[in-house]
Here is the input.
Amino acid sequence: MRERYNREINSIEIGWATPFGIAALESAYRLGEEWLDQLIDFLKGNVDFIQSYLKNHIPQIKLDLPAMAGFPGTWI
Here is the structure.
């Protein structure tokens, strides 16, 4: 059983994690959908705010939204 456990842990590349880290990872995958949805909404709100601010205060600057894909930071 230990060999099967180790094989599974290594297959998802978390062999370095502690038991608490593994439990946290499992919980995030099982129970984190609502939190992730809220995070995405929050980040979208930040992008909307920055776009609005730039449009109203510094219209010469544009956001490069495709470059921002998958990154919570902002590229101007």
